[in-house]
Fold each of these.
Amino acid sequence: MTDYSTDISVSARYSELSGLLATMTKHAASLGVADADALRLQLVVEELFMNTINHGHQGETEHKVGIALFLNDNVLTLRYEDNAPPFDTSAIRTGNAAPDTLGGLGLGLIHGMGKSLCYRRIDQCNVTEIAF
């Protein structure tokens, strides 16, 4: 049974990120999420959001990014959705990051922040669910 859920949707634009994170953090606080867990949640959403813009859409767009928070039996789950080309976030890719370059570490970081991660492609959307 879902104790609580919330849905937030913004355009895939860099300028939308701070508002998205602020709104999500406010909802997480109302769920009683600890500050340290809220910071992990923010980091995960920021990584996913930047990947959507930079790699999925190859730049800013009016296409929507949606997030939802669910609290089920004291387990917080983040659902992140975008309609960028298919990209399976559940697969950790290795060997992408050189030690002297930026990038290539985000998916490993995302996987390390949650207890579990599930990816599905639903109706032309990438849907990633992460349990914390």
Amino acid sequence: MGVGTAQTVVADKPGSSRLTDDPACCDDVFDRDLLLHLVQHAAREAKSSESSIESVLGVTPEQLEIIASFAGMTIADLAARRGAPTPDDEQLMLRELLMRHRSQPGEIGEWLACIIARRSMEPNHLWEDLGLPERPDLKRLLMRHFRSLAANNTRNMRWKRFLYRAICESEGFTMCPSPTCDSCSEFHICYSDESGPSALARNGHEGKPSVVE
């Protein structure tokens, strides 16, 4: 199946418009719910842009097949796809940063490092471009899977800005016009409000069946 041919995503159960926030909920349930949201959002974007889900997510077809199975989804025609998206240098740097800070070994952290790096290339708030219902969902994701990195965001900086700043610091240079945040002319860019309706809500998808064709 070539790029431009729509893939069909069918979830075993309808996706909620919110991620589970039950503190008693086990982490595996949160991860499955999270990945369900990420793939369904990517499927909608892939359909509108006539691209593939894996290119929107930044994962290989083989990874996407495993992710879909883990999250209880079926992606039609996936087995016919070949090849993998080629990340640019920026994506690779961000992916490597996240991989260095994984909270535990395993595939889920690797999948999320690839997905976050790819979705950071998009123009909106990172939580929106990931397809998450709310900004706090992104904090929970990062604190669960990349805690040693996320814990450094002590002043609630915008996450995309924070990640790029972390790359700069790891490479020994800075993107900031001022040595301190409080005196910086771009303070409002890094720290202004990221809340608001999710892309899911704005596009009128809340409450719809979790089938994307």
Amino acid sequence: MFDYPIHNVPREIEEKMEKAKYPKRKLRILNEWALSTFPERLEILKKAFESDGGVLDYTPKSLIPIWDWAFEHTIKEMVPEVELEEKTAHLSPLAKVIHKHLAKERFTEQSEILLRDVGIYLGEVLKKKHPKLFWGMELTYKRSNNFGKVVLAGYTGDYNVDLQGVAVAIRWRDDEQGHDSKRLYKIFLAQHEVACFE
């Protein structure tokens, strides 16, 4: 695994979150910071990808080679037993066994961040195709799977999508079903179709 730069929440942002009175305010502070890092994250991704001969030109076709590259440069690790115990302490014995089985692996921190940066890139490709789209945060619908996350918004209605989470999820699918060079591109096509709907 090559050395892909990670980023941690700065102490000043953590302090602001600690001082915030309401949970939504804490999420807003965190997401505003995350959004402010997107240009830097894209530059890091560009530099890493282009050092291996790739080109980020923000075209839909570029999603195919960058997905191949991301597949080759992301790996999983075993979750330490102590950590699993802490996370499952509140569960029933049966639920604990199931959760431990399902959660025994995860992507390394570098891999997770690389995939999330690829998700940002996917969003920028969609924004270039559909200028009405924009980065925002889902803080309205608590029952939404995207609640508290940075999302691509601007679609018709209340639809939005967590593309960073999608990139991580489809990388899991690559391991389960076999690598598909066009998997990220297919997500683009699906989101493009939704964005075209008026």
